[in-house]
Amino acid sequence: MDSDTLVSIITAALGGFCIVFGLYSLVIKEKLYISEAVVATLCGLLIRIIATNDSTPLWENQNDLNRQFSRIVIAIQVMATGVALPKKYLWKEWKSLMTLLIPVMSWMWLISGACVWWLLPDLKFLEALMIASCFTPTDPVLANSIVQGHFAEKYVPQHIRHLIAAESGANDGLGFPFLFLAIYLIQFSTGDALAVWGYKVMFYEIAVSIACGAIVGYLGRKLLRFSHEKKLVDEESFALYPVILALFLVGTLGLLGSDDLLACFIAGNSFTWDGWYHVETKNAAEIMKSIEMLLNLSIFMYIGFIMPWSSWVEIGFSRLLLMAILVHLFRRLPVIVLLYKKFIPSIRSISEAVFTGWFGPMGVGSMFYCAVAVEIIQNNIDNAIFSNQVAKYTEPIVYFIVLTSIIFHGLSIPIYQAVKYIPKYCFGYKQYEAIIEQHPSSSDLERAPVSVNIIIWLIKMILYIIDFYTDYISFTFVLWYAIDQPST
């Protein structure tokens, strides 16, 4: 298929999807509580299967396109996240954020790597950590779909919404230390790896990007305020100024070789540090929301379109499914529940801890770090630094985790809503109300700002699936073991 035909198919599909989705977006998002990411990803995957019936790369430089496209989308999204946070939020909630960004993120990296290594023992542990680092950060695009909308405003406390948004914005730029620590430990001795990692990653990419982001955000705020007071800037340019700053930082920090994603998030916080921009943009906020929705629809439909589903069959679907379930259950939830009382003051109850622990979605950020990892593997393929297995497994594993995250996290709230209303349809509304009156604790739990019911029902469903497929999975493990044994 030539490039003109391929681009025409993609643009026609995207335009057609946006037309149909736009006509029913209120029902899908506010009535069914389904995020645009779920619909766009599944639509892209379906179109790819129908149009090409193949999941091989469509372009020779597809990995470069994946990296650059996701990089721009994330930069704009983390800038928007930083701008949307309350003034001086990083200063006020530093303890909670530091806990989420250092010990919690480290746990997420290690436990995800352990899950990958356990189910793919032909990988070295450092190679498993390299793959796991791609889906260690939470995704700001998917996180926004959780912390925005009617359901979030009704059930999720504002301080939890801010915490999830801030964490997703910050840790998307902090994926580099985990990725390159694993890479350097593979490439060099431990001492050399730590030295290079400390200077090149922690200082030049992280510290320099934080400084640049803070300075650019501060100067941008001062300049825009001056122009606004002198009536030199129109409303549209005023509303789009954060996007302009994001593009500027992506270009300049990219030329410097520093972490442009982290710089964009810090710049967004610095830009609204005094809260002035929030007051002045109340009427123009819809412009940013429209841009964000168009970017979200485009990137998630693209993710669905490039899913390497044929590689999943080669690795083994049941193995990947078990890996995804283990990652989603143990990657984040246990450590947040364990630490929240003493180290995360923004989380005030066990229900909020469970909610925050579950909703750590993986999406566009994982696509970006996967593209970075694949590029490094391809550049060193002749040096035999990385095994053939890590080159084979990286992309399929990351994209499968992304797909399951989009489905699990994107459908958690609709499933909860469906389960909550089943008794009303089974017993009748009056009988249901009578049951609730007899069990006031159930009613209280249902009215709680963040209900654990979402997680309880989802975990029950996952455990039911595991129980249903126990015999099949056990047989599959025996078969893998038999196949993997060398012939005598």
Automatic annotation (TrEMBL):
Gene Ontology terms, MF aspect: sodium:proton antiporter activity
Protein's UniProt keywords contain Transmembrane: yes
Keywords: Membrane, Transmembrane, Transmembrane helix
Membrane topology: Multi-pass membrane protein
GO cellular component, one term: plasma membrane
UniProt organism field: Phascolomyces articulosus
The Cation/H+ exchanger transmembrane domain, residue ranges: 24-415
Lineage start: Eukaryota, Fungi, Fungi incertae sedis, Mucoromycota, Mucoromycotina
Compartments it resides in: Membrane
Chain segments annotated as transmembrane: 6-26, 33-51, 97-120, 174-194, 201-219, 239-256, 293-311, 317-340, 352-377, 397-416, 461-483
Protein name: Cation/H+ exchanger
GO biological process, one term: sodium ion export across plasma membrane
